[in-house]
């Protein structure tokens, strides 16, 4: 069974599954979901907790041995498997699949991962857990989902917020749920039980809008340019180096080059490993662009890469602004690209 983090509490109230996989791109939601499963297991008598770290060279027979071992002090066991890479490999996949198909008695297995790619989420071991246990994937909430998450968090602390205050909080904590959680806890101390106004929010909440580089990519693929350029500005203000931004955009442009000329864009996205959540954004970007415009952006990305590495003196941030604007604007930028081609091409070459 696949669950979102907001449905976990209700599912746990109906009983524990024998096996859980908790993963996702949002660390706070992954951590809190794992904590909720631990708490439910402890309340149900699973007092023997064993932790396995499945790093490079891990012997997956330890998982089977842990499930078969008898505890001197408890009848029920919680086995945690920390899988930092998100990929258990062939032996690990087989071990997890076997545990899902024949769960050890009086045992709950909790596998905690970071972000999983589409291949891992479609693997045999992941599907086996989904069939016999619970898989939970924590996407970073955005837009209305972020607003709902903040509203729920405020209610948990006994607060409510005026719409303007809620919008201000969403804007300031975008991309950093931990900061949002901390700010709401602070508001609860300053204004217990209150309906928070925009003035309260502005006074109490620090500007935590730490936009991730991947958030920049999502906004540039989705368009329009304003949101993406604002994110790029914030990254620069926070001292993020240009190289990782250039590298990510260049990698995504290589994928876009394959998608833009495809008959079935979604199928190609899945084939080349575009994250499922990002596939609609990639398809939108492909509709705004042509093979020629993607080649033009890749040339600009190449020059930005050389500038970021110090190979030439060109400021890579200038090219990043160009890339983000053109990628997110699409057809609106074609006239500008044509007018600028003669000036830019010699500098790109």
Output mean pLDDT.
Answer: 85
> Which class of secondary structure composition applies to the elements?
alpha/beta
- Give me the strand/helix succession: EHEHEHEHEHHEHEHHEHHHHHHHHH
User: How far apart lie the N and C ends?
Assistant: 53 Å
Placed side by side, the strands forming the largest sheet appear as: 1-6-2-5-4-3
β-strand number: 8
> What would the CATH topology of the largest domain be?
Rossmann fold
Question: Strand percentage, roughly?
Answer: 5-15%
Shape: globular
CATH superfamily of the largest domain: P-loop containing nucleotide triphosphate hydrolases
Helix content: 55-70%
EC number: 2.7.7.7
Domain DNA polymerase III delta subunit-like C-terminal: 213-307
Enzyme class: transferase
Domain DNA polymerase III delta N-terminal: 20-134
């Amino acid at each position: 069974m696949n669950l979102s983090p907001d449905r976990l509490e209700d599912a746990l109230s109906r009983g524990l599954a024998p096996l859980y996989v908790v993963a996702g791109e949002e660390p706070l939601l992954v951590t809190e979901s794992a904590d909720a499963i631990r708490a439910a297991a402890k309340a149900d008598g699973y007092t023997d907790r064993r932790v396995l770290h499945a790093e490079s060279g891990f012997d997956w027979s330890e998982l089977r041995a842990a499930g078969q071992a008898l505890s001197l002090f408890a009848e029920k066991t919680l086995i945690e498997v920390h899988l930092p890479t998100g990929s258990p490999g062939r032996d690990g996949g087989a071990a997890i699949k076997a545990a899902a198909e024949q769960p050890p008695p009086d045992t709950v297995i909790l596998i905690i991962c970071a972000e999983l790619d589409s291949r891992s989420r479609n693997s045999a071991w992941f599907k086996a857990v989904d069939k016999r246990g619970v898989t939970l994937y924590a996407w970073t909430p955005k837009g209305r989902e972020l607003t709902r998450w903040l509203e729920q968090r405020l209610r948990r602390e006994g607060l409510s917020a005026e719409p303007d205050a809620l919008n201000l909080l969403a804007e300031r904590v975008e991309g950093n749920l931990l900061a949002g959680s901390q700010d709401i806890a602070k508001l609860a101390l300053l204004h217990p039980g209150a309906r928070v106004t925009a003035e309260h929010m502005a006074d109490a909440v620090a500007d935590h809008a730490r936009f991730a580089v991947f958030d920049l990519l999502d906004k540039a693929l989705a368009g329009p340019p304003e949101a993406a350029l604002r994110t790029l500005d914030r990254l620069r203000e926070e001292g993020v180096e240009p190289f990782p931004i250039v590298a990510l955009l260049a990698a995504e442009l290589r994928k876009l080059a394959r998608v833009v000329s495809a008959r079935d864009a979604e199928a190609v996205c899945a084939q080349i490993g575009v994250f499922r959540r990002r596939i609609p954004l990639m398809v939108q970007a492909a509709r705004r662009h042509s093979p020629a415009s993607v080649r033009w952006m890749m040339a600009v990305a190449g020059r930005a890469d050389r500038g970021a590495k110090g190979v030439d003196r060109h400021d890579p941030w200038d090219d990043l602004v160009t890339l983000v604007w053109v990628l997110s604007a699409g057809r609106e930028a074609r006239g500008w690209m044509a007018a600028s081609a003669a000036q830019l091409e010699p500098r790109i070459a």
